[in-house]
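Below is our example:

___
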Amino acid sequence: MNLSGKNMKLYKNFNISKNHRRSIILIGNFDGIHLGHRKLFKLAKSYKKKFKLSIGVVTFEPMPKMYFNEKIKNFRLSSIIQKNKILNNLGVDFIITKKFDKRFSKIKSNFFIKDILFKKLQAKYIFVSNNFRFGNKREGNVKQLIRNEKVYDYKIVKPQPLILGKKIISSTYIRSLLEKGNLKKANKVLNRNWSIEGTVQKGRQQGKKIGFPTCNIDIKDYVIAMPGVYAVKVNKKNSKKTLKAIANLGYRPTFNQNKILLEVHIFNFSGNLYDKYLSVEFTKFIRKEKKFNNVNQLRKQIQSDLKIASKS
């Protein structure tokens, strides 16, 4: 069993090893792994200790909401890599990341219960949120799971959501905080600094031309936080050293660009970071993105932003 978060097993289907059957199973997207999720995992760990069982997570890729609505491009709070890393640290023993495709979306709710939860996983305790839906056209719900408890020898656990300041803590709530520029509150309910991870790409060298070279990172399907300037911390893959930096997340209106991009300027740094994998932690929202009349105005504003970011 994973007590220290070191030996988590990753599966891509429900054919799991014998020692992972008869476990505690948590089903959901767990996007961002916020304080509400952590409350859930804390409860699961108490069950693990009491019943001497392993903890497994069942999650789906792409996230079902993104699969059913192709217009949703920027949605995630965390990538699969980030999610797995945090779940590992929370003491999860195994993760099943099931590909969510047309075939899987068509399975009947009874099949999901009988053939997957019972026959393949032999789940003993199943943790789900109250609004959990599953099966073809979302026909299955928590009531159906509870009705089948005795038939398939499992117990449903549906913990109460975490409420802070009259707000239910959810991934949807955190996305809205980021979109409104309320980074401070988003970081608080995430219980960590929100971060984007990605590979540095070669850009148009505009930052370098005006005296502020940047690392350009494609944000892929991450949620688009309020476009603007942020104080950030940067970590290179397999490096424990944290670098202070400033970032612009936006569309670069001064240069008439229209594609969202994360540009990061690392303080007192020289070196080539092209093709390097970076983690960028957002620590403070400085200002909204705006269009400047000329490059000199932009340069002057960046110098002002740098002073704020360096003190963060």
Q: What stands out?
A: The chain has two domains: 9-164, 194-311.
